[in-house]
Amino acid sequence: MNVYDSEQIAKGLKPLGYKTTPLLERADLIIVNTCAIRAKAEQKAFSFLGRLAGLKRKKPDLIIGVGGCVAQQEGEKILKRVPFLDLVFGTHAVDRLPGMILRIESKRCRIVDVGMKKATDSMEPFIDSQIDGSATSFVTIMQGCDNYCTYCVVPYVRGRERSRDPESIIKEIRLLVESGVREVTLLGQNVNSYGKKEGLCSFTQLLSRVNEINDLKRIRFTTSHPKDLSDDLIDGFRNFEKLCNHIHLPVQSGANRVLKQMNRKYTREQYLEKIDKLRSFCSDIAITSDIIVGFPGETRAEFEETIDLIKTVVYDSLYAFKYSNRPNATAAELPGKITEPEKKERLQMLLALQENFTTQKNESLVGTVEFILVEGLSKKQTTGIQKTEFGLQRERHPAVQWTGRTSTNKIVNFIPGDDGMPCNDNLTGKMAKVRIEKAFPHSLGGQLRDL
Ligand code: 5AD
Ligand code: SF4
Predict the structure, then answer these.
(1) Who has the most CB within 10 Å: 58, 73, 196, 333?
(2) Can you tell me the distance from the alpha carbon of 446 to that of 438, in angstroms, rounded to the nearest whole number?
(3) 157 CA to middle of ligand 2, Å?
(4) CATH topology for the 121-362 domain
(5) Ligand 1 center to 222 CA (angstroms)
(6) Closest atom of ligand 1 relative to the 290 alpha carbon
(7) Residue 36 in 3-state DSSP?
(8) What count of other Cβ atoms lies within 10 Å of the Cβ of residue 58?
(9) Which fold does the domain 2-113 belong to in CATH?
């Protein structure tokens, strides 16, 4: 979500003559896009802001702004806390940002805009081609959330759920595809309820339209709320050939009492039924999840129920978090807060268990040939020189290592194959057939077989 918002900020400021720079020292404008989901993310934003004080001293004309969920939550207070700040803008103010920047440039005033939109206000994003040449892109299809999980700050900082017009979504994706994008990830806090409130088309109908877009090769979506995962959508994994074989289905806890306290509106049994259905419709679907450990009042036995659920489902990978108290969220008032060392221990135990499962799943792919959408050169470029016991040996295909993902969302770094497979062509955006040769805890290694 935040990556998409940052891209939106860059797209909106392009007509004003701003383009992104990798060097902070060169910037004329710095926008810090913040996340408030856990206290740690919020602390990180403030410590980054603190580090900008020196830059502003050296370059007084530098404009510094804070956007996103922390900006929405704290508003004017941030101007007091960070005296050199020029601008605070909330989650509903991104389309007003260019106007604010123009005002600051001409009047050197300080601005706070944390106004939320009304249901009738336009929610059109800045529609533009891909600005960084990548083969993948996020596309927001809805904003906000109406679910009010008791631990979560999102409904307070992103507002009520609203879905975008399908025509505008299709138009945006077509433009992205024209500029080289081959995979889109449709984004929303709960994509399964897309269009329901406004009486637009259903999420499955939207998927069916996106599936028809020429030259688009892959579709992903996130996030699905288990309570709203329909049979129709589960069937989509069979019907839409571009839809990737992966679903992120956050469970949060394996204990019914905790799920109730979290206001998740499903039971452990109902969740497991959905998993069974997904696997019966699509046997090799990859399933990932989010889990919170140490929710207020979570007993050791309830935590063990979560461990047991993980053993039952055997996820492809997991994002697990220690419960973090959020000022607006109602769980902040609940008794029975779990101590930090206990939360840490539960988290470590859970992650160690999952690491075994992830490794086993990755190892089971060694020897298979997978279709990879190439995203670009791998960050960890090999030097082309391999150390052996006796000295240094040059590899046959020095330096080039590409990266991409399987349909099941596993990262694969691969080298060009033997048999004259191209090693210097730009493979970004191509579908590559890669033989998987190595499994690591968080990625796979392979060799190109065919394009
Ligand atoms: N504490 C810890 N984790 C949280 N999440 C959301 N709110 C909190 C919180 N207060 C996690 C949930 C959610 C993911 C995006 O972040 O697991 O699915
Ligand atoms: Fe937060 Fe729950 Fe909405 Fe997800 S569904 S954004 S966890 S309130």
Answers:
(1) 73
(2) 6
(3) 11
(4) pyruvate-formate lyase- activating enzyme (3.80.30)
(5) 15
(6) 17
(7) coil
(8) 8
(9) Rossmann fold (3.40.50)
